[in-house]
Amino acid sequence: MDKLPVFVTWAHADYRASAQQTQAWKTTVYDFVHLLGKYVQVDADLFHYTDVGMDWTVYGPRAVEAADTVLMISSKAFWERWKGENRPDEGAGAVREMDALKGVFNRDQQEFQRKAVIVLLPGESDALIPNELHRVAWFKVTSIDLAGVETLLRRLLGVPLHAQNGEKIRPDLPRYQPGSGPRKDGPAFGMPADRADLLKEQRAQRRSGQEPHDVGQAVKEALQARLPKVQPETFSKFQELQNVYEYLATSLRDAGDQLAKSGFPTSVRRTDERITLRVERLGSTVYALDIMFGRGLGHDDQLTFSFSGGSGYNAWLEAVYNVVAQRPAVRVFDLSLLSNFGGSDGVMSKEEFFQKLWDRIVETVERQVR
């Protein structure tokens, strides 16, 4: 097998999952692999299902050896196979690939460290990663789009977000010449030359009967002059609404991961038009929320919120500019989204809104399970 930049290994199924859950998992993996294939050369078993004469007993181990990077798609079933805790009739292909990776570790630990990378797809938690693999780099895919895989792509392509400047500029720092006198940019001890000049000028003013003018205070007063508080011309309610949408998707997913660790499986899915949040407890849905763009014709500058996965909406918000705070904000209509009392016209930052929303979600979940 020729040298391969990226190979993806994953567990196809979990015997505890329903057919619908299994298909949803496969679709997520398929979408991720195809998206990644737009930017790097990637191989996975899904590309070879119809290959004539395919020998699955050798394909996976050879791909692991040939790959520069092996992406290990994290899931409960995957790590059971890694630890040998899977059922004996399940996951033989993934186990072969894992054995090949362990062989790399036994042969060359540094090569294993460079080759192995763990990937958490949306909804997966890093709490499942085995302790012995915490030395391995892992990346969280926040959404199946370019923004969601950006950090992982930077690792695969070797394009860091922060790069050191290779070219250095040598400043012109002339040597001190004897007899040239004091320099205003001299050592930071004693009285600065410009301060001495100012004192000299003030003494001359006093001798002539003039009141010395405090230049520093005048500058401070000028800087404190009142400026008009208005909405900047560059503010766009549509762009800011998109920023709020992205922020809510990321924040709900991160908070949902924490909630899942406390015994409430939480699923957050994001598309270009909708964010869905589902919280479960013992197989039952205890909270559901959908966030969508628009609430009908002429309202594409709003986000709507629907409880319990309904087709209607219970609340909505707009992106506005808070001229008092001089920053973007959101105006929430129907505050029953955030409390037991109705209302409207609640202006707050997107961070404040998310905190209130999450508090409301947790309070509702608590009431459901008491």
Could you explain how this protein is built, in words?
The chain has 370 residues and is α/β, with parallel strands linked by helices. Helix content is 38%, strand content 19%. It is flat and about 105 Å long. Helix 2 (56-66) runs parallel beside helix 4 and helix 4 (92-107) crosses helix 5. It has helices at residues 19-36, 56-66, 76-83, 92-107, 109-115, 146-157, 193-207, 215-223, 237-261, 350-369; strands spanning 4-9, 42-43, 67-73, 116-120, 138-140, 266-270, 274-281, 284-293, 302-307, 315-322, 327-333, 346-348. This is SEFIR domain-containing protein. Residues 168-192 are annotated as: Disordered.
Average of per-residue pLDDT values: 84
**Cross-sheet strand order for the largest sheet:** 6-7-8-9-10-11-12
Largest sheet: 7 strands, antiparallel
Number of helices: 10
Protein name: SEFIR domain-containing protein
Region (Disordered): 168-192
Organism: Umezawaea endophytica
Quick recap:
With 370 residues, the protein is of the alpha/beta class.
Keywords, please?
370 residues; seven-stranded antiparallel β-sheet; single chain; five-stranded parallel β-sheet
Topology:
Blueprint: E1 4-9, H1 19-36, E2 42-43, H2 56-66, E3 67-73, H3 76-83, H4 92-107, H5 109-115, E4 116-120, E5 138-140, H6 146-157, H7 193-207, H8 215-223, H9 237-261, E6 266-270, E7 274-281, E8 284-293, E9 302-307, E10 315-322, E11 327-333, E12 346-348, H10 350-369
Parallel strand pairs: 1-2, 1-3, 3-4, 4-5
Antiparallel strand pairs: 6-7, 7-8, 8-9, 9-10, 10-11, 11-12
Helix pairs in contact: 2-4, 4-5
